[in-house]
Specification:
α2 packs across α3 (about 35-40). The protein has helices at about 5-20, 25-30, 35-40, 50-60, 80-85. The chain contains 5 helices and no strands. The chain has a single domain, classed as 434 Repressor (Amino-terminal Domain) (Orthogonal Bundle). It is mainly alpha-helical and about 90 residues long. It is globular and about 30 Å long. The longest helix has 14 residues, at about 5-20.
Length: about 90
């Protein structure tokens, strides 16, 4: 399942909280403003540089996988659970 930008933001927020990082700490580590982190976490980061988004994921110990549609192995991942919870 491919997450939307809003769902990706929810995943980032959940992971940041699990790591007990504040938005300010993550922003400092990435060299961006706290506002940038807020925008990412709320799915409003349309103008965010892709390299910085990947840096944020790396800092949080996350990664995106790219695969052809239909090649999912059928397993449910932790990210799928977060996405499903976010979708309600």
């Amino acid at each position: 399942m491919t997450p939307t930008i809003r769902e990706l933001g929810a995943i980032v927020r959940a992971r940041r909280i699990a790591l007990r990082l504040s938005q300010a700490e993550l922003a400092r580590d990435l060299g961006v403003s706290r506002w940038w982190v807020i925008q990412l976490e709320t799915g409003q980061a349309a103008g965010a540089g892709l390299a910085t988004v990947f840096a944020a994921l790396d800092r949080l110990g996350l990664a995106l996988e790219v695969a052809e549609v239909g090649e999912a192995d059928g397993r449910t991942s932790e990210l799928d659970v977060i996405i499903d919870e976010h979708r309600g």
